[in-house]
């Protein structure tokens, strides 16, 4: 794999990587034969400027052998400090939602579509999403879950594309099919726990989505 130059600061302004970073990300992700290899490649990857301002890379939590994989948006402050996805208030809510369908972090695998916290919790740029996309796609392939859940708008937009552009309010709650190395996997998009903390009235809809996932996990054995 061609070495990526370290993104740096130029007069106090971060110099953004170009499209060569996206190509390097694709090459690096494709070369990973295990989750440990993928994590090591990400830790050494120099093509995303978000790593310059983040405290920690946030790779995953939970059981990589689990049948359910959840993919969230980008790390927040608490996740950046701990280096784990879904901690703090949103993580506690997610844990309660998983517990309500008989699961916990030992029976689910949790990742994010972005691996480093964007400064000020801003939305990641299109280029940052494009750079991280090959890694999360390879991560999903390596986990090879029976059922996928996307939490929030970012993973749906980044990994599904045009059909998700109308927003999570219209996209959630209906089963889709996600292709994992030629194998169709049921996908349920739903609201992000952080959104549910701001809009608790929507919890009833997310609850329906989690019940759908519970039923589907029973169907797929």
From TrEMBL:
**Entry's Gene3D superfamilies?**
Uracil-DNA glycosylase-like domain
**Family matches, as InterPro entries:** UDG_Type-4/5 (IPR051536), Ura-DNA_glyco_family4 (IPR005273), Uracil-DNA_glycosylase-like (IPR005122), Uracil-DNA_glycosylase-like_sf (IPR036895)
- From the UniProt record, list the reaction(s) this protein catalyses: Hydrolyzes single-stranded DNA or mismatched double-stranded DNA and polynucleotides, releasing free uracil
Q: What class of enzyme is it?
A: hydrolase
Q: Where is the Uracil-DNA glycosylase-like domain?
A: 59-211
Q: Which UniProt keywords apply?
A: 4Fe-4S, DNA damage, DNA repair, Hydrolase, Iron, Iron-sulfur, Metal-binding
> By its UniProt entry, which Pfam families does this protein fall under?
UDG
Which Enzyme Commission number(s) are on file for it? 3.2.2.27
Query: What Gene Ontology terms describe what this protein does at the molecular function level?
Result: 4 iron, 4 sulfur cluster binding; metal ion binding; uracil DNA N-glycosylase activity
Question: Which GO terms fall under biological process for this protein?
Answer: DNA repair
State whether keyword Hydrolase applies.
yes
Recorded hits in NCBIfam families, A to Z, give:
UDG_fam4
**Would you identify the family this protein belongs to, as annotated?**
Belongs to the uracil-DNA glycosylase (UDG) superfamily. Type 4 (UDGa) family.
Q: What is this protein called?
A: Type-4 uracil-DNA glycosylase
What organism is this sequence from? Methylobrevis pamukkalensis
